[in-house]
């Protein structure tokens, strides 16, 4: 698949997906969502890629939301489909990806933009970033998982306030709420994320994939996360990465994980 709205690059085991519609503040239209699905899938299947970064082009916006011009005339059926397809193709897909995904929030992350950042495994923002779920100001609600993931990340009361006011918080407040893990300057954002990604890339990708699955199990209805952890822990003992990791420790050398 060739891309009109995103750029996929990779080097040193780290893929970067850049949403590239700067004239529309990188708003997510349906085509962009399909391209993002393809790029995440491709990066995840490439065994040389250990970590994926997602960011927006330019220095104004990560993503300023779903593309309002595209859904302004939708009816209930089309609206329901937009939400269901988007969640399946992109937001649930990224959350459950075996490869770690870091959102590098380089500006506005609003509506679907914050929802995209929230389905990533964690987030880093630059100090000019602004985040919020302004959907109720348009007469709609967050439809790409925002009503579920925001309370998980910052607590119900704070999420309710942010959603009801349709307000924006700055990077400092987002850090204070635990919505982002780190705040950097605009210039340092990507290099900071690369450093974090490089650290992650040194560890066992097989173990990391199992850990992502176990952590996510806590948020799935009807699934006992402790059981998922026990099984994944046990399964780790029969992996080549476990053999290499423990052998390297005992031999006092750095592990080189086969993956
Ligand atoms: N969907 C479609 N187009 C969008 C968009 C979105 N979510 N967000 C921004 N754009 C477009 C604008 O329409 C404008 O296009 P134009 O130049 O062709 O008119 C362009 O991006 C630049 O945006 P603009 O509003 O002029 O920039 P600004 O600096 O004045 O304001 C924002 C920035 C982010 C505050 C403002 O763009 C905004 O409120 N966007 C919508 C946010 C939102 O409600 N998202 C949730 C959607 S469900």
Commentary on this structure:
The mean pLDDT is 97. The protein has 259 residues and is α/β, with parallel strands linked by helices. Helix content is 47%, strand content 16%. The protein has two domains: 196 residues, 2-enoyl-CoA Hydratase, Chain A, domain 1 (Alpha-Beta Complex), CATH 3.90.226; 46 residues. The protein is globular and about 60 Å long. The strands form two sheets. A six-stranded mixed beta sheet has the order 1-2-3-5-7-10, sandwiched between helices. The longest helix has 20 residues. It contains eleven helices and ten strands. The structure holds coenzyme A. Coenzyme A (COA) binds next to helix 2 and strand 6.
